[in-house]
Amino acid sequence: MLIITPLGIVVEYGWLDPRIFGVHALIQLVSLEVIFLASGLFVQFKKIWRERGDLRDASVEARIQVKRLEQELQQKKVEQKISRGVWELRNHELSWEAIRYISVDGHYLEVYCADKNRPLIERYRMSDAQSELPEEHFMRIHRGVIVGKKYVSSVGSNEVEMEDGTRLQVSKSYWGKVKSFKPLIAV
Predict the structure, then answer these.
(1) 25 vs 171: CA distance, rounded Å
(2) What pLDDT is stored for residue 143 in this prediction?
(3) Which region, left, alpha or beta, applies to residue 104 given φ > 0 means left and ψ of -120 to 50 means alpha?
(4) What's the pLDDT at 4?
(5) Torsion angle, CA of 177/180/186/187, rounded to 10 degrees?
(6) What is the pLDDT of residue 46?
(7) Which of 39, 135, 136, 152 has the largest count of CB atoms under 10 Å?
(8) Measured between alpha carbons, how far is 49 from 174 in angstroms, rounded to an integer?
(9) Does the reported pTM lie above 0.90?
(10) Among 184, 179, 155, 150, CA closest to 167
(11) Which residues pair with 74 in a beta bridge?
(12) Residue 7 has what pLDDT?
């Protein structure tokens, strides 16, 4: 890119001969050239700054779009799991029909299944389990317990009895939902 400055024009065409006019005029022209170049740089800087702002806005919009797409993908994954009737944990894949109840022990969930003698133990959050399991099949009765509605045999004053005879405490905060539940299994 060719930049034409006042000093270059003046010296090129012989309008100013430094030997004749002395150093004072040359200093004035150099000052004028510095101002000219500075204003050109300022215009370029302003243009770059504006483009950078446009890129920043585009970057923010792209991040928002990526986040929205990730949420849509997560929602589709959840819908696929729901349609399959399977709950995928880190180390296990369980059918909803097989889960009798889930209790929490520290950071670990104990998943009691109808077809297993011992609980499956998995490091998982209870809130994640509740959000991933469908409400039509499961009911939370305590901060640390989710039951499979299919396996509830009776609802007492402050407990739920499962078909295998296990009694699970119902907390006061969940009692409103639990007391209106009608067990599917007749005792």
Answers:
(1) 93
(2) 92
(3) beta
(4) 53
(5) 80
(6) 85
(7) 152
(8) 57
(9) no
(10) 155
(11) none
(12) 52
Mean pLDDT by 10 residues, the chain (187 residues): 51 55 64 80 85 82 91 83 75 85 92 89 89 87 92 88 90 85 63
Report the alpha-carbon distance of residue 25 to residue 9 in Å, rounded: 14
Please tell me the distance from the alpha carbon of residue 185 to that of residue 149, in angstroms, as a whole number: 9
Q: Distances in Å between the alpha carbon of 83 and those of 35, 71, 95, 147?
A: 71, 18, 11, 20
DSSP calls for 103-172: EEETTEEEEEETT-SS-EEEE--HHHHHHHS-TTTEEEEETTEEEEGGGEEEE-SSEEEETTS-EEE--H
Phi and psi torsions of 77, nearest 5°: -65, -45
Structure tokens at 136: 């039509």
pLDDT at 26: 63
pLDDT of residue 2: 44
Q: How far is CA 128 from CA 134, 157, 160, in A?
A: 12, 28, 23
Cβ 101 vs Cβ 88: under 8 Å: no
Distance in angstroms (rounded) separating the CA atoms of residues 141 and 129: 14
Residue 92 to residues 23, 120, 123: CA-CA distances in angstroms?
Answer: 87, 8, 11
